[in-house]
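Sequence and structure are no longer studied apart. As an example, we show below a sequence and the tokens encoding its fold:
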Amino acid sequence: MPRVTRNPLMSLWLSAANRAANTGRGMMMAEAKRQQTALTTATTQDVTRFWARALRSVSVPPPRKGR
């Protein structure tokens, strides 16, 4: 196997490329997490609102006060 000499310019270039790629990946993952949290919150609120209204309409109406 031939011995490959180190190339400092290539090393610097790859380090910068990896740094940029990881920064972009981190930003993308953070945005995905924000969207996921927002969707979960909205869904939970919708489900809670639905069941609160459904159970309220099924409950026994209050008795009428004299006629």
